[in-house]
Amino acid sequence: AILVIGNEILSGKVVDTNAAFLAKELRALGVTLQRILVIPDELDVIAAAVRAYRPVFDILFTSGGVGPTHDDITIAGVALGLGRQVIRHPLLEEKIRAYSGDKINEARLKMAEIPEGAELVFEGSMSFPILLVETIYILPGIPELFREKFLAMKGRFAVDPYFMRVIYTRAIESSIARYLNATLEAFPLLQLGSYPKLSDPEYSVRVTLESKDLNYVNRAFDHLVAQFPPETIVRTE
User: Fold this and answer.
1) Residue 236 and residue 140: Cα distance in Å, rounded?
2) Which of 116, 127, 162, 207 is most buried, with most CB under 10 Å away?
3) DSSP state, 160?
């Protein structure tokens, strides 16, 4: 699951791209994303989300709220949700002091705070770590940093991949619904999606078939294609 934290997202001042990026990356790694929750910069709300989500999901990612300003309270919220104290990590403090020099202040030192017992995850060439506490990865909200940090550690999440086949059709969605239903009856474990595209000169609907079993998805694909009138299929992948 992903917790996207920030009043700026809920107010529309900023468009969240981190969740979409992470969803796509996780899917490519074979990871099933089951929830995306967007919440405000409120301590009790963050803590409640952590309490609700951490026991239910194998991994929880947070996005946002880890900077030096007044509304960066993700660390405190996660700590509260886990019943932990917030402490200042000596290694992070050392790094921040070395980087800041005579410009050091309490706002900068706030970025050395972690939930007590959190692990510092250094991957690749990153100079500042990701925080891992229990099964929660705490990531920054700035999209460039969010992507850099996740890509540096993405290998640790790889599992059996999903295999996908795609059908692009000129037929409208209502006319192919019976074909989709019949395929799901024959292949109940298939993940089947139907996505209409309005005003596209090439196709009307994009149909996706997914499974972690390559043979299964190929058999389901053949089953579905056989039901379409040939002239309605634009192309397949």
Assistant:
1) 38
2) 207
3) S
Give 184: exposed, middle or buried? Use CB within 10 Å, 0-12, 13-18, 19+: middle
Query: What six digits make up the tokens of 125?
Result: 């060439």
Whether residue 124 has pLDDT greater than 90? no
The Cα–Cα gap between 221 and 210 comes to 9
Q: Which residue has the tokens 């939930």?
A: 115
Report which residue type is found at 224: L
DSSP calls for 189-232: T-EEEEEE-TT-SS-SEEEEEEES-HHHHHHHHHHHHTTS-GGG
Whole-number pLDDT of residue 31: 97
**Is the CB of residue 168 less than 8 Å from the CB of residue 202?**
yes
Q: Which two tokens stand for residue 213?
A: 């079993």
**DSSP element (H, E) containing 39:** strand 36-39
- Whether residue 123 is predicted with pLDDT greater than 90 in this model: the reply is no
In one letter, which amino acid is 193?
Answer: G
Quote the CA–CA distance of 109 and 92 in Å, as a whole number.
9
**Distance between CA atoms of residues 64 and 79, nearest Å:** 15
pLDDT in tens, 8-41: 999 999 999 999 999 999 999 999 999 999 999 9
pTM given for the model: 0.90
* Phi, psi at 206, each rounded to 5°: -105, 120
Please, what's the largest Cα pairwise distance for the chain? 73
The answer to whether the CB of 57 falls within 8 A of the CB of 155 is no
Q: What is the DSSP letter of 162?
A: P
